[in-house]
Amino acid sequence: MKVYRDISLKAYNTFGIAVKTQRLVVMEDDDDVALAPILINRHSLVLGAGSDTVFTRDFDGTVVTFSNEKADGQTIKQSGNQLTVWAGMKMDDLVQWTLDHGLYGLENLSAIPGTVGAAVVQNVGAYGAEAKDTVVSVEVIDLYTGDIRTYTGEECRFGYRTSRFKEETAVRELVVYVTFALKDTYVPNLSYKALEGLPHESAQQMRDAITALRWTKLPRPEEHGSAGSFFKNPVVDETTYMRLKSEYPGMPEAHKVNARDYKLSAGWLIDKAGWKGKTMGRVGVWPENALVLYNLGGCTGDEVVALANAIQADVEQKFGIALSPEAIII
Ligand SMILES: Cc1cc2nc3c(=O)[nH]c(=O)nc-3n(C[C@H](O)[C@H](O)[C@H](O)COP(=O)(O)OP(=O)(O)OC[C@H]3O[C@@H](n4cnc5c(N)ncnc54)[C@H](O)[C@@H]3O)c2cc1C
C-alpha cells in the first residue's frame, strides 16, 4: 500500500482539476483491501482513474484508489472463458488483453478511459455494448463490516450508466474484483448504427476502428481535460418525444428503451440550443461533440459546474427537458 499526504489530485482526474487531498491511499493487493475498512470511513472517497469525476473543492479526508497492476502479479485470473480482474486495471488494457488471448465481447468498449472497478459502478457503454453484457459477478468488500460479498450480474442492478454501487450516497462497498464471461469465437456486434461500414473482419480491426472513430469526437486527454460525455441522454415518455419530433422534424430518431420511454440525444439538444463550441471562463463545449465539456487550461470545478448549469437551464427553457450530469461532481 502506498500512502501520500497533502497531495494534488490533478493527475488523478482526467479533467485535470488541481485540488488537493489530505491523504491518498493506493491499494496494491488483497492484504491492503483487507485493511480498507480500517482506513476508509464514510467521509472517504473511492477513485478509479477520475475520468468521470469533477472536483469542485479540496478533498478533506482520505481518497482511496487501486494500483493498475496487482502487486502479486494476479491482476487477471483466467478460468476458461471467464476472467476475474482486479478493480484497478485500466479497462482499455483489459480489452486489448482479451483480444491478445482470443477472448471476445469487450471490443466495442475500446478506448473508454478508467478502471475495471468503475466500469461496473458506472455500467460503461459505447457502440452498442455495455459492461453489464459480459459481467457475471462482482466481488466487493463491505467497508462497515469487513465482509466480502459477491453479487451476480443481476444483483448488480445495472441500468443506464448506473448500478447498485451508485445507490448509496456514502461509500459502503468497494468493488475489488469483476468477473467477465467472454466468448472464444468472434461475432462482431454491429448493432450500433455508426459502426456501419467500419472494418470489422477481426476483433482487433473492430477495436482499432472504434478507437479511431472515438478520437474524432472526443478531446484527447493529453491535450484537453474532460470527463467524456458530461450529460446523460435524457429518457422521456412517448408524448414528450412526439411533441419534440413535431416541433423539430430534423431531430435524430430516439432510441426506444421500453414500451413507453425513449432516449433522446442530449448532444443534439445542446447543439440545437447553440452551445457547441461555446466557452465560459476556462471551460468549453467541445466543437465536435456538444455532449463534452472540456478544460481550456487551468479550469476549476466551479467553472465546469457553472457552464453545466447554464446549459441545463437553457435546454430546459427551450425544450422542456431536464438534463442530468453523467459525471460525478464532488
Ligand atoms: C475522453 C473520455 C471518454 C469517455 N467515454 C465514455 C464512454 O464512451 N462510455 C462511458 O460509459 N463512459 C465514458 N467516459 C466516462 C468514464 O470513462 C467512465 O465512467 C469510467 O468508468 C470511469 O472510470 P474511472 O476509473 O475513471 O472512475 P472514477 O471517475 O474514478 O469513479 C467513477 C465512480 O466510480 C466509483 N468507483 C471507482 N472505483 C470504484 C471501486 N473500485 N469501488 C467502488 N466504487 C468505485 C467512484 O467513487 C465514482 O463514484 C469517458 C470519459 C472520458 C474522459
At a glance:
About 25% of the residues lie in helices and about 25% in strands. It is of the alpha+beta class.
Explain what you see.
- The chain has 330 residues and is of the alpha+beta class.
- It is 24% helix and 26% strand.
- Strand 8 (125-126) and strand 9 form a beta hairpin.
- It has 7 helices and 20 strands.
- The strands form 6 sheets. The chain has a 5-stranded antiparallel sheet with strand order 6-7-12-10-11. Strands 1-2-5-3 form a 4-stranded mixed sheet. Strands 13-19-18-17 form a 4-stranded antiparallel sheet, with helices on one face.
- Residues 14, 46-53, 87, 112-115, 117-119, 121-122, 124-126, 161, 165, 174-175, 218, 221, 226-228, 328 line the site of flavin-adenine dinucleotide.
Total helix count? 7
Quaternary structure classification: single chain
Q: Outline the biggest β-sheet.
A: 5 strands, antiparallel
Rounded mean pLDDT is: 93
Tell me what portion of residues adopts beta-strand conformation: 25-35%
**What's the number of structural domains?**
3
Spatial order of the strands forming the largest sheet? 6-7-12-10-11
| CATH-defined architecture of the largest domain | 2-Layer Sandwich
